[in-house]
C-alpha cells in the first residue's frame, strides 16, 4: 500500500528514488514517472562519478622539488597519492618518508575556536616490523606520537586566518623509516606543503629544520647518531621574511651566542624550504577558497565595547589588591554589563561577536599594561618572581614527596623506585627511530583542573 511505501521512505529518506522505482503500486499507476525517476537516479550516479573524476584530475598534476640542506637533499612531492584530500605531500630525507594529508570542511562548525586536529602516526611496518602485541596491529597513540602532533600543531595553527572556525584535519603517516633521519621535522614540512598546495585558507608556507651542536660544529638536520653526541636539540619552524613561528629546544650548557647562532642558521635553511614549496604552488596553480564566514567581531562593535569597558578593565588590572579569583569575578561582572549594552545597541549581533568584542578589549588592555607600562596585573614588574613555598617528605610511606605552591597554583609530586623489570619496553618503531629500547624513567604529568581546580 501507499502507507507502507511512505513508511519505508520515512525510515530511509536517502533511498526514495530506488524505493519508488521498485514499488509495484507506483509502477502500475505512474509508469512514465518511474522511468523519469530511474533516469534521475542514473544521472545522479553519473554526476557523482564526474565529481570524483574532476577532483582526481584537479589533484592529478604530479610535482616534485628538492632542497639541498647540508650534504643531503630534502625532497617534497605531490599529486601521486591521496588525490581526494584537499592537499597531500610526501616528504623524504634519505630513506625516511612521511605522507601528510590536509582536509578542511567548507561549512563552519559551532565551536568558538579553530577546530584543528593533527594526528601523527608511526607504523611498525614503516620500519619493516610487525607489532609484537597480541593483535599484531597498531594500538593506541604513544607519547612520541602525541608530542610530535603537538609540535606540528604549534607550527601551523598561528597561520590560519583569524576566525576560521572550520573543522580541519592533518594526518601524518610514516611510510618508511631508515633509522638515520628523524621523521618529526619531515612531518612539519609535509603539513606545510599539504596546506600550501590545497585550497584551504592558510597564510603559509613554513619550513622546519632541526639544528644540533656536535664538538662546536652546528649541524642542520643531523642524523640520529650525530644527535646522540649533540649538546643542542633545536627544532625551529620559520615563515616568510625570516619570521620564527615555533621553536622547541633542549640543551646542555650551551652559550647564549651559540644558541642565537643556531636560531639564525635554522631560520636561514627554513627559507630554502619555503621557496621550494612556493615553487610547487606556482607550478600547481594553487588558488585558495573563500570561507563562507570568518568569525570576528565587527570593528564598530569593538570600538563600542572599548568605550564601555576599557577604563573599567584597566582599573581592575591595576588594582593590586585582587587575587586571581576576585580579579576574575570583577572582570566577569564588567563583561556581563558590557555585553548587555552591546546587545541592546546591536540586537541582531551573533552571540560570538558580542563575546569576542569584549575579549578583544580585555586582551588589548592587558597587553598594553605589560608592554607599555611594564607591569603585570598583580603589581610586579617584568623581572620579579612571586614567592614559592616548598614542602618535602609530606607523605611518609612514599619514596619521595613534595608540595610546591606559587600564588594559588599547587603541584604535588611523588617519586617511586622499583625494580628494573618495571621499565617500559618501547615499541619497535620507537626503537628504530630513537634507538631507545628500555625506558626506566617515567614522568607522568596530570593536570587535575576539572576535579581539583574548578568550582562548578
Architecture overview:
The chain has 456 residues and is of the alpha+beta class. It contains 13 helices and 15 strands. It has helices at residues 2-11, 16-21, 24-29, 31-58, 143-156, 183-196, 224-228, 256-284, 299-317, 324-345, 351-373, 428-434, 449-453, and strands at residues 63-69, 72-78, 87-93, 96-104, 116-121, 168-176, 207-214, 217-220, 232-239, 243-251, 388-392, 400-406, 409-415, 424-425, 438-439. The longest helix is centred in the middle third of the chain and has 29 residues, at 256-284. It is globular. Mean pLDDT is 85; it is low at 1-19 and 43-54.
Quick structural overview:
The chain has 456 residues and is α+β, with helices and mostly antiparallel strands.
Unreliable runs, pLDDT <50, ≥5 residues?
1-19, 43-54
Cα(first) to Cα(last) distance is 56 Å
Helix content: 40-55%
Q: What is the helix tally? A: 13
Principal-axes shape call: globular
| Structural class assignment | alpha+beta
The H/E string reads HHHHEEEEEHEHEEHEEHHHHEEEEHEH
List the helices and strands and how they pair.
Blueprint: H1 2-11, H2 16-21, H3 24-29, H4 31-58, E1 63-69, E2 72-78, E3 87-93, E4 96-104, E5 116-121, H5 143-156, E6 168-176, H6 183-196, E7 207-214, E8 217-220, H7 224-228, E9 232-239, E10 243-251, H8 256-284, H9 299-317, H10 324-345, H11 351-373, E11 388-392, E12 400-406, E13 409-415, E14 424-425, H12 428-434, E15 438-439, H13 449-453
Parallel strand pairs: 5-6
Antiparallel strand pairs: 1-2, 2-3, 3-4, 4-6, 7-8, 7-9, 9-10, 11-12, 12-13, 14-15
Amino acid at each position: 500500500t501507499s502507507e507502507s511505501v511512505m513508511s519505508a521512505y520515512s525510515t530511509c529518506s536517502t533511498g526514495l528514488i530506488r524505493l519508488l522505482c521498485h514499488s509495484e503500486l507506483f509502477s502500475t499507476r505512474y509508469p512514465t514517472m518511474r522511468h523519469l525517476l530511474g533516469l534521475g537516479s542514473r544521472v545522479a550516479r553519473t554526476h557523482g562519478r564526474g565529481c570524483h573524476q574532476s577532483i582526481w584530475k584537479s589533484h592529478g598534476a604530479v610535482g616534485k622539488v628538492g632542497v639541498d640542506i647540508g650534504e643531503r637533499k630534502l625532497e617534497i612531492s605531490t599529486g601521486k597519492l591521496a588525490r581526494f584530500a584537499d592537499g597531500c605531500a610526501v616528504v623524504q630525507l634519505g630513506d625516511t618518508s612521511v605522507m601528510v594529508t590536509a582536509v578542511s570542511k567548507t561549512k563552519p562548525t559551532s565551536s568558538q575556536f579553530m577546530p584543528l586536529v593533527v594526528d601523527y602516526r608511526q607504523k611498525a611496518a614503516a620500519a619493516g616490523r610487525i607489532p609484537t602485541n597480541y593483535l599484531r596491529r597498531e594500538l593506541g597513540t604513544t607519547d612520541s606520537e602525541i608530542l610530535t602532533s603537538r609540535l606540528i600543531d604549534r607550527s601551523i595553527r598561528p597561520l590560519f586566518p583569524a576566525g576560521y572556525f572550520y573543522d580541519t584535519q592533518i594526518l601524518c603517516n610514516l611510510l618508511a623509516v631508515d633509522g638515520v633521519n628523524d621523521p618529526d621535522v619531515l612531518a612539519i614540512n609535509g603539513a606545510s606543503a599539504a596546506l600550501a598546495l590545497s585550497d584551504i585558507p592558510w597564510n603559509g608556507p613554513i619550513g622546519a629544520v632541526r639544528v644540533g651542536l656536535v664538538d662546536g660544529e652546528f649541524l642542520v638536520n643531523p642524523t640520529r647518531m650525530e644527535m646522540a653526541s649533540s649538546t643542542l636539540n633545536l627544532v625551529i619552524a620559520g615563515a616568510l621574511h625570516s619570521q620564527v613561528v615555533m621553536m622547541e629546544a633542549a640543551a646542555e650548557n650551551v652559550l647564549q651566542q651559540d644558541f642565537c647562532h643556531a636560531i639564525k642558521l635554522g631560520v636561514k635553511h627554513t627559507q630554502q624550504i619555503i621557496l621550494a614549496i612556493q615553487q610547487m604552488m606556482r607550478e600547481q596553480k594553487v588558488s585558495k577558497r573563500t570561507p563562507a564566514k570568518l568569525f570576528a567581531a565587527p570593528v564598530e562593535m569593538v570600538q563600542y565595547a572599548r568605550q564601555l569597558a576599557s577604563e573599567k578593565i584597566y582599573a581592575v588590572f591595576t588594582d593590586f589588591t585582587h587575587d586571581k579569583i576576585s580579579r576574575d569575578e570583577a572582570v566577569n561582572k564588567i563583561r556581563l554589563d558590557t555585553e548587555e549594552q552591546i546587545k541592546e545597541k546591536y540586537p541582531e549581533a551573533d552571540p560570538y561577536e558580542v563575546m569576542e568584542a569584549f575579549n578583544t578589549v580585555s586582551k588589548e588592555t592587558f597587553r598594553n599594561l605589560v608592554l607599555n607600562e611594564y607591569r603585570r596585573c598583580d603589581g610586579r614588574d617584568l623581572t620579579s618572581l612571586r614567592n614559592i613555598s616548598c614542602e618535602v617528605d609530606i607523605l611518609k610511606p612514599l619514596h619521595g614527596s613534595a608540595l610546591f605552591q606559587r600564588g594559588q597554583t599547587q603541584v604535588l609530586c611523588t617519586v617511586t623506585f622499583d625494580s628494573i623489570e618495571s621499565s617500559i619496553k618501547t615499541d619497535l618503531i620507537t626503537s628504530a627511530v630513537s634507538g631507545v629500547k628500555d625506558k626506566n624513567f617515567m614522568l607522568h604529568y596530570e593536570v587535575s583542573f576539572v576535579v581539583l581546580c574548578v568550582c562548578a
